[in-house]
Amino acid sequence: MRKGPSIFNVTLVALGLAFLYLPIAILVIYSFNASRLVTIWGGWSTRWYVALWHDSAMLDAAWTSLRIAALSATAACVIGTLAAVVLVRAGRFRGRTMFSGMVYAPLVMPEVITGLSLLLLFVALDVGRGFWTVTIAHTTVTMSFVTVVVQSRLLSFDCSLEEAAMDLGCPPLKTFLTITLPLIFPAVAAGWMLAFTLSFDDLVIASFSTGPGATTLPMRIYSEVRLGVKPEINAICTIMIAVVALGVIAAALVGKRREWVGRT
Amino acid sequence: MTDAAKPALRKAPDWGRRLVILVPALWLAVFFVVPCLIVLKISLSQTVIAQPPYVPVLDLAAGWPGLRDFAGGLSLDSYKMLGSDWIYLTSYLRSLAIAAMSTVILLAVGYPIAYGIARSPRRLQPVLIMAVFLPFLTAFLIRIYAWINILQREGLLNDTLLALGIVREPVVWLATDTAIIIGIVYSYLPFMVLPLYASLEKLDESLLEAAADLGAPRWKAFWLVTVPLSASGIVAGALLCFIPIAGEFVIPDLLGGSSALMIGQTLWTEFFQNKDWPVASAVAIALLLVLLAPILIYQHVQMRALEDR
């Protein structure tokens, strides 16, 4: 077996990445198109970004989405991390199979079913639907993703450090906060980011669980997109991509720095 | 794992341990299990023009007679409707067919990518995996929307094909099943590549060397050694894609035509346009029953994969 990259392997990976990135690149380029007709290139321009700046409904929706995503990601991180700790460190307990079943099911459950079921719960409880119901719905769906990410990190190191701390008389809660949490922190942060983007991105569950007054950005974009392709939408999508890209680069740099500091 | 190897939570005081288990368990019970039961209950109710738009409404305050009235008011009407109108049956079959076809194509596209990454230099692998995962972090809706730009009549795909002389007239891409499948394959590709990579990366290369030493041609070694050893990744990836695709709403809604619906769209229409909550719930329960076997297999695979580590 040949070691190192063969031309065949490089081609496979390059083709795959091209397929993944080309549509996004095209979208970004066309957001700077001066022409109103989306398909005709009319030179470079930032007019759609200016138009966007004056679209207060879109900006309101973006602000709502940001707040929901930040809140639900934080809640999902807390509950999801607890669930991961239970699955990896709690050993056997009664109802363990049931527990892990509940944790993994939301991962694959079709969104229309989750959305419908949560809405019917909120109706049955007779609570006013809006900002908070969407936040709760997103927390429920995204916590499973946090659990999977944190779980794999917890599995990747053994508990000898935790054991040592506790043998020396450190109480369990303090052990978790001073030993376990710093060790799994990169995974918790990654889980937060994943939960944030999933929430920021979600159309189906938000549409079901929201009420009057809380329109999220995807709901807003969706109603515009249904009417056809618009240059303003290209612009807002480009901004969202830029935000995500900056976030990922920042996370990578922080990771590198930690690694670098850790080594010296 | 032996019991001695995971004491962290076991040494915690009983109430502390219970609390750690209870918080996520309660949250999931209230916001995941109970809602599913409510869907089941409402699927057995009947539509009325009221608030909420279904009867019977469970009134626990009425005590035992209330409960009896409630049980007497349940009906299978919504399910009878699902069985009697061919619209529902065709949309179930259509969803399963599209999900199956997309999953096969995803495997065919995802496997070479995962294989290529698993065989690339070690230090490059995390970067490449991140590169596959990154588009997943940019909004789903955006990625579907990007394809509308490309697939529309005067879009880039037709422009390119015309310029290259491959076709003479613009081809209709949007509002076809091809468009739906392209959108699905594009959106779900990371979900296929990641589990495949996880199983291919663990593959012991000396096995392939052994096969080569014994005179097996490379394709045969691939088919007899690599593929069977990555079976767990294939199963996990296929299920992780197939199950949500079967209930997909956004992709067929934006890229597909309006003539034939996938089941997610049927549920959406029943709920938001026809305001028929019981039928929407029955559609959801029927979909859940169809997907129950794949979901259980997926959970089994997921749990076994964790115990292996």
Account of the protein in words:
The complex is a heterodimer of chains A (264) and B (309). Chain A is mainly α and 264 residues long. Chain A is 77% helix and 0% strand. Chain A has eleven helices and no strands. Chain A is globular. Chain B has one domain: MetI-like (MetI-like fold, Orthogonal Bundle). Chain B starts with 13 loop residues before the first helix and ends with a helix. Chains A and B meet through α1, α3, α4, α5 and α6 of A and α1, α4, α5, α6 and α8 of B.
Features:
heterodimer, A: 264 residues, mainly alpha, MetI-like fold, B: 309 residues, two-stranded antiparallel ribbon, 73% helix, 1% strand, disordered N terminus
Secondary-structure arrangement, i.e. CATH architecture of chain B? Orthogonal Bundle
Outline type of chain B: globular
> Helical residue percent of chain A?
over 70%
Coarse shape of chain A: globular
In short:
The complex is a heterodimer of chains A (264) and B (309). Chain A has eleven helices and no strands.
Question: How are the elements arranged and paired?
Answer:
The complex is a heterodimer of chains A (264) and B (309).
Chain A: H1 7-30, H2 47-53, H3 56-89, H4 96-108, H5 111-125, H6 131-155, H7 160-167, H8 172-201, H9 204-209, H10 217-225, H11 231-263
Chain B: H1 14-43, E1 46-47, E2 54-55, H2 63-73, H3 77-84, H4 86-118, H5 125-137, H6 140-151, H7 156-163, H8 177-201, H9 205-213, H10 218-229, H11 231-246, H12 250-255, H13 263-273, H14 277-308
Antiparallel strand pairs in B: 1-2
Helix pairs in contact in B: 1-14, 3-14, 4-8, 4-11, 5-8, 6-8, 8-11, 9-10, 11-14, 13-14
